[in-house]
Amino acid sequence: MAGEILVYVEQKGGAAKRASLEALTLGAKLAAARSSAAHAIVAGDSAADAAAECARYGAAKVLVLDTDPKDTHALAAAVAGVANDVALVLLAHTAKGKDLGPRIAGALNAPLASDCTAISNEGDTLVARRPVFAGKAIATVKPASGTLIASLRPNAVPAEESAADGAVENVSGAAPSTGLGAVLAEILAAADEKIALTEAAVVVSGGRGLKGPENFGMIEDLAAALGGAVGASRAVCDAGWRPHTEQVGQTGKVVSPNLYIAVAISGAIQHLAGMRTSNFIVAINSDAEAPIFKVADYGIVGDAFEIVPKLTEAVAALKAQG
Length: 322
Ligand SMILES: Cc1cc2nc3c(=O)[nH]c(=O)nc-3n(C[C@H](O)[C@H](O)[C@H](O)COP(=O)(O)OP(=O)(O)OC[C@H]3O[C@@H](n4cnc5c(N)ncnc54)[C@H](O)[C@@H]3O)c2cc1C
Description:
The protein is of the alpha/beta class. It folds into 2 domains: 5-171, HUPs (Rossmann fold, 3-Layer(aba) Sandwich), CATH 3.40.50.620; 197-321, Rossmann fold (3-Layer(aba) Sandwich), CATH 3.40.50. The protein is 28% helix and 25% strand. It has 9 helices and 17 strands. The N and C termini lie far apart (48 Å). The structure holds flavin-adenine dinucleotide (FAD). Residues 207-209, 233-236, 247-252, 264-266, 268, 270-271, 274, 284-287, 290, 303-305 line the site of flavin-adenine dinucleotide.
C-alpha cells in the first residue's frame, strides 16, 4: 500500500456513517489525483455489509477487520498494522475519530492533523488545513515525510458516489487490548436525537434571547421544517433549558453544516468557535450590533418571536409547492 490512502469507515448495522463517506470521497479524489488508490477499512458486526457502500464511494479495496471497534486500542493497532507506508490515513472527526486518530498516529509514530476542513495534494505532499484559535486562523500542516494521519470535520466536503472496484479483503486484526487505556463502557445517545448535530446539513440554534425553555418549540419547528437538528448556546444549556448534547461552541460540539441559523445568540467568540466554518450562516437578532452579524452571510435584525414562525411557515409553503 506504499503511497496509497487508507480511510477508516465507521459503520452501524452495515450502514456506513455519512461523515466517513465524506472522508472516503475526499480520500478517493486525492488518490485519483496522485494516480494512486484509496482503500476503506471497516470493522465490527455487519462490517461486511458496509463494504458495498464503501465501494460505491470510491474504495479500490475494502479491508474488513475482525477487530471489535469498541476496543479502540486494538482497533488502532490493527489499522496501524495495515497502514504501513501509506501516504494518508483518513478518519472522520467524530467521537470515534478523535479517539482513534491519535492512537494510530502514536502506533505509527506519524504526525496527526485533526479536525481538518480541507486536505489537498501539493505536488507529492499532502497538505492539511485545520482551524485553530477558535477558528480565527487556519493552520497548514505538511508532513516532513512518511504517513500523515488526518481527521476530517463532518460536512467539510460532500459525500459523492464514484464507482471503484471495491474488492473485499478480510484482515485479521490485533488481539484485543490488555485492558490498558480507556474502556468503552456504554454509548449514550440522546433518545430523541433524530439527526446527529455534528453531521446535520442544517442546524438551527437558539440562544438566551429566547427567554426560556418553553420558547424552543419554534426552534424545533424551524429545524424540523428544514430537516435539520437543534443546537443551543452554552448560556442556554447552562441554564438547563436544553441538554448539553446540543451545545455548540468551544466547549460544546463543533458543527459545520451547509446552513446554520443562529436565533437570539449574541455570537460570543466561544460560540463562533463551534460554527464559523458553516457554509451559510443566518443570524436573527434584535440587536443590530450583535457580534454574530460579523460572521453571518445573511442577517435579520428583529424580534425572533415574530421572525422564526414566519420563516417556518415560508419553508412549509415552499415545500408544499414541491
Ligand atoms: C471558557 C468558556 C467556554 C465557553 N464555551 C461556550 C460554548 O461552547 N458555546 C457557547 O455558546 N458559549 C460558550 N461560552 C459562553 C459565551 O461566552 C457566551 O456567554 C454565550 O455564548 C452567550 O450565549 P447567548 O448568545 O445565548 O446569550 P447572550 O450573550 O445573552 O445573547 C443573547 C442574544 O439574544 C438577543 N436577543 C434578545 N432578545 C431577542 C429577541 N426577542 N429576538 C432576537 N434576538 C434577541 C440579544 O440581542 C443577544 O444578542 C463559553 C465561555 C467561556 C468563558
